[in-house]
Design brief:
heterodimer, A: 127 residues, 4-stranded antiparallel sheet, 11 strands, B: 107 residues, mainly beta, 6-stranded mixed sheet
Chain lengths: 127, 107
């Protein structure tokens, strides 16, 4: 079945950077938009960023715009989230998720639901 | 920015019906998606496009959406349904928006 596996989380000091990865398998990765969503301890879900199937279009939540960058390598079936200038409030479990919209060709804008989700990777920002 | 409002908690006895609401301005004009999240696990899609169910989701889960309120209904609630439930929409000004989540407690 479709699988998404995040990695790259850990403990990082405030102000430092971290890059998360999301390895996709058992589906045509290049045909789907992808998202990053996070969940702070004991809190709800917060959408962070989306990237179109071909990487041409990206969008971000205001809370991370300018600090976080989403990218993908379709040759490696991998999604990334580059996180810079990390703050204590960025402490959370970070999930990647596939958008529902299947793109049969060219570039398509993700506009659907999220299915499936990865298992998440914990990022702790602390000195 | 667009805001989705969910009640923090809902409690229901086993076998009864749980209704979890998601309020938003003219939400009836948008497609609403619902996720179930059990402790320590990733969210799982349970309803999409207001009322459709993914394969593998029991028929006990259903959804509706009209006016300013979308509703996730869980019939014949079981202990295993105890979880947090989140609604989600796309908004032209806010992109993806999640509700704050509702904790379903099975008494």
């Amino acid at each position: 079945q479709v699988q998404l596996v995040e990695s790259g989380g850990g403990v990082v000091q405030p102000g430092r950077s971290l890059r998360l990865s999301c390895a996709a398998s058992r589906f045509t990765f290049s045909s789907y938009g992808m998202h990053w969503v996070r969940q702070a301890p004991g809190k709800g879900l917060e959408w962070l960023a989306v990237i179109s199937n071909d990487g041409a279009n990206k969008d971000y939540a205001d809370s991370v715009k300018g600090r976080f960058s989403i990218s993908r390598d379709n040759s490696k079936n991998t999604l990334y989230l580059q996180m810079n200038s990390l703050r204590a409030e960025d402490t959370a479990v970070y999930y990647c998720a596939r958008d529902a919209v299947y793109c049969s060709g060219g570039s398509c804008n993700p506009r659907g639901w999220f299915d499936p989700w990865g298992q998440g990777t914990l990022v702790t920002v602390s000195s | 920015s667009y805001v989705l409002t969910q009640s923090p908690s809902v409690s229901v006895a086993p076998g009864q019906t749980a209704r979890i609401t998601c309020g938003g301005n003219n939400i009836g004009s948008k497609s609403v998606h619902w996720y179930q999240q059990k402790p320590g696990q990733a969210p799982v899609l349970v309803v999409y496009d207001d009322s459709d169910r993914p394969s593998g989701i029991p028929e006990r889960f259903s959804g509706s959406n009209s006016g300013n309120t979308a509703t996730l209904t869980i019939s014949r609630v079981e202990a295993g349904d105890e979880a947090d439930y989140y609604c989600q929409v796309w908004d032209s000004s806010s992109d993806v928006v999640f509700g704050g989540g509702t904790k379903l407690t099975v008494l």
